[in-house]
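Translate structure to sequence.
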């Protein structure tokens, strides 16, 4: 039976409320909190019941493992094996990138409940750099398991109100913070012994930077999980189904030259929001949409002149707000021009393709 929860307690990020949030975590409750990437939905990573509640609150399938957050390097001994901690690649990545938007997947201590790891021998761990997140983890005194604080498959939250819209009534408390700085989730890198490092999910650390840091240690391969895994087949990484991060309004990644064809495939489509990587590409896509007979309700550039950091930080917020304006209209859609995949652009393009894949699954 699902427990009925009242509205989440909202707590300003002051010392007293951090202590209160930490007490909720320690007794097995759920607290959403800001990090520099997206808001997380936190519970005690060492308490299997708390971990189960996270899956329940998100509506997330249990084959999708959770990231465990610790505050300091010294705390890594509570999650990784001694052998994993001796891996020079872990040291190189941690020295350069922690605290920050990087998750490392490596051999787990047996004490981390299997549910956190989806039964795998490895655990994903991150040291966030957001001060509220670190203060919460320190005050709780336990590693905190935290997926992004959204319902499964929907858009990730970059602002406190995004969290409440999706999870109010399903969590105990929300620690308030500003809009998140990075705006896309952490990059996830797997370090298995005897094989090169693998980028499982592009994110807040550019692949180019990971390549440079790992070059002396055999480099890093990019598992491009954009290609949909055949159903039933083992996924290259758990939890990485192609469809993800989707707004409720259908989203299509489309170049200006492809809009006319899209229109003939989707005759019900009438009103669209247009999103592009910069002003010029946005204008070109909006013009193509009008030429194809569509009404352009709004057109927005992710940044005026292709500033990836700015685009990443506003990506989810923009999609949340367009979705709020259009969701429910049967004839509405979101047209997004392809995003270039250099630097942080790789994570942006990845999220857009997953949002579009969710739509293909609904159309199919
Ligand atoms: O920035 C972030 O990473 C945010 C904030 C809250 O830290 N968290 C986040 O968590 O995005 P989530 O649950 O939405 O994404 C976790 C993903 C999994 O879907 C999986 O792809 C990968 O991280 N992952 C985690 N643990 C893993 C493991 N043991 N093995 C392989 N992949 C793992
Ligand atoms: Mg997520």
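Result:
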């Amino acid at each position: 039976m699902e427990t009925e929860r009242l509205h989440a307690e909202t707590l300003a990020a002051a010392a007293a409320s951090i202590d209160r949030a930490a007490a909720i975590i320690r007794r097995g409750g759920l607290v959403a909190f800001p990090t520099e990437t997206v808001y997380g939905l936190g519970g005690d990573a060492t308490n299997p019941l708390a971990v189960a509640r996270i899956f329940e609150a998100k509506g997330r399938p249990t084959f999708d493992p959770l990231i465990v957050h610790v505050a300091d390097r010294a705390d890594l001994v509570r999650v990784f094996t001694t052998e994993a901690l001796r891996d020079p690649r872990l040291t190189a990545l941690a020295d350069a990138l922690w605290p920050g938007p990087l998750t490392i997947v490596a051999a787990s201590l047996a004490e981390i409940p299997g549910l956190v790891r989806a039964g795998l021998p490895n655990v994903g761990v991150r040291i966030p750099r957001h001060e509220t997140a670190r203060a919460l983890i320190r005050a709780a005194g336990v590693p905190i398991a935290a997926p992004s604080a959204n319902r499964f498959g929907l858009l990730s939250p970059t602002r406190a109100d995004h969290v409440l819209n999706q999870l109010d009534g399903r969590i105990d408390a929300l620690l308030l913070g500003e809009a998140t700085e990075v705006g896309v989730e952490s990059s996830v890198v797997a370090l298995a012994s005897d094989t090169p490092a693998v980028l499982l999910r592009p994110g807040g650390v550019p692949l180019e930077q990971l390549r440079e840091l790992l070059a002396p240690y055999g480099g890093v391969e990019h598992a491009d999980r954009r290609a949909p895994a055949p159903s039933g087949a083992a996924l290259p990484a758990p939890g990485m189904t192609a469809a993800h991060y989707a707004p409720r309004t259908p989203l299509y990644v489309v170049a200006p030259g492809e809009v006319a064809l899209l229109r003939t495939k989707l005759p019900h489509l009438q009103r669209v929001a247009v999103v592009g990587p910069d002003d010029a590409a946005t204008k070109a896509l909006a013009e193509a949409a009008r030429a194809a007979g569509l009404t352009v309700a709004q057109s927005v550039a992710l940044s005026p002149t292709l500033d990836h950091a700015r685009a990443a930080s506003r990506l989810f917020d923009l999609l949340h707000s367009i979705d709020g304006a259009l969701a429910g209209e049967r004839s509405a859609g979101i047209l997004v021009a392809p995003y270039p995949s250099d630097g942080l652009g790789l994570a942006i393009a990845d999220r857009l393709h997953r949002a579009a894949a969710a739509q293909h699954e609904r159309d199919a």
